[in-house]
């Protein structure tokens, strides 16, 4: 029996079945990728972090720079207290039996005709400046080893310059020449020694024919004391003028090599210019002490 027609029939059936399967089961279309949900992701990732990162960099860098600058500046600032001249200890008022030293002061009451005596150290050819003031109507007289000062009358202030001929201890006497009673304040200075609150200029060299000027301001209406001591044998002249240039006092009472002293009594806080020159236009070397009393 011939088998070819039978095989042909089986092959035809198989091909028909495959053809029907292809027609009845169409190829499904690919599912589209949803872009709606991806778009927000892109926005969040690409935009928001860029702004945040930018802000973080700005706020991280600027404070760091500021802090570093502050740390560099603060340690290099020098306290102003270090530039101030060293404080000078204020001497205590003298007590009975003790020596009255330069820079010290004392206050007591004198009855009519009464007096007080202080011990002071004299150094050869080194002037001592004594100043006494009162707010009462007593008439003060200052005296040391034959040198006296009594020029102002009742209620006035007195200044005395004493220069010892040799080293030693001397009596400084303050006496009330009036019959009234009252209180006084006594001060002792040395132009070579600084005192608190004073203008002290030691060893100032004056070129021949020149004038040295110094500024001092009163403390309200309190006296201003001016002491100038030539270290050499020059003959000096001292002039005191206001800020407006008005001369109100001068001192040229002593000879060559002798110290000069003066004081002014302002009515209010006043700035003064103290001018010092050698009257023979010679060179000079001086110690200057300007004391605005408190």
Entry keywords:
294 residues, alpha+beta, Jelly Rolls, 3 domains, four-stranded antiparallel sheet
Detailed description of the structure:
- With 294 residues, this protein is α+β, with helices and mostly antiparallel strands.
- It has 3 domains: 30-77; 105-189, Jelly Rolls (Sandwich); 199-292, Jelly Rolls.
- The chain has helices at 4-24, 38-46, 48-73; strands spanning 105-110, 115-122, 127-134, 140-144, 147-149, 158-163, 168-176, 182-189, 199-206, 211-217, 224-230, 236-242, 247-251, 260-264, 271-278, 284-292.
- The strands form 4 sheets. The chain has a 4-stranded antiparallel beta sheet, with no helix packed on it. Strands 2-7-4-5 form a 4-stranded antiparallel beta sheet, with no helix packed on it.
- The longest helix is centred in the first third of the chain and has 26 residues, at 48-73.
- It is globular, with a radius of gyration of 50 Å.
Sheet-strand content, in percent, reads 35-45%
- Tell me, rounded to a whole number, the average pLDDT: 79
The CATH topology of the largest domain is what?
A: Jelly Rolls
Report the total helices: 3
CATH class placement of the largest domain: Mainly Beta
**N-to-C CA distance:** 155 Å
CATH architectural designation of the largest domain: Sandwich
Q: For the largest beta sheet, what order do the strands appear in spatially?
A: 1-8-3-6
| Share in helix | 10-25%
């Amino acid at each position: 029996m011939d088998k070819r027609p039978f095989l042909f029939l089986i092959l035809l059936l198989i091909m028909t079945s495959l053809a029907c399967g292809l027609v009845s089961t169409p190829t499904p279309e690919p599912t589209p990728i949803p872009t709606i949900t991806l778009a927000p992701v892109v926005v969040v990732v690409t935009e928001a972090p860029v702004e945040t990162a930018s802000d973080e960099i700005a706020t991280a860098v600027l404070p760091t720079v500021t802090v570093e600058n502050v740390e560099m500046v603060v340690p290099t600032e020098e306290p102003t207290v270090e530039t101030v001249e060293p404080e000078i200890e204020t001497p205590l008022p003298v007590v009975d039996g003790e020596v009255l030293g330069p820079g010290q002061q004392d206050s007591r009451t004198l009855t009519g005709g009464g007096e007080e005596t202080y011990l002071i150290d004299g150094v050869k050819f080194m002037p001592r400046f004594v100043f006494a003031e009162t707010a009462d109507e007593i008439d003060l007289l200052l005296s040391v080893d034959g040198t006296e000062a009594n020029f102002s009358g009742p209620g006035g202030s007195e200044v005395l310059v004493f220069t010892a001929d040799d080293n030693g201890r001397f009596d400084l006497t303050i006496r009330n020449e009036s019959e009234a009673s009252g209180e006084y304040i006594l001060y002792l200075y040395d132009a070579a020694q600084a005192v608190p609150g004073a203008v002290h200029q030691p060893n100032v060299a004056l070129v021949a024919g020149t004038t040295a000027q110094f500024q001092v301001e009163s403390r309200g209406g309190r006296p201003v004391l001016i002491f100038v001591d030539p270290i050499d044998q020059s003959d000096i002249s001292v002039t005191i003028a206001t800020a407006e240039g008005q001369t109100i006092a001068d001192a040229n009472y002593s000879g060559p090599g002798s110290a000069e002293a003066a004081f002014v009594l302002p009515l209010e806080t006043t700035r003064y210019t103290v001018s010092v020159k050698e009257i023979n236009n010679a060179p000079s070397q001086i110690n200057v002490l300007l004391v605005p009393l408190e």
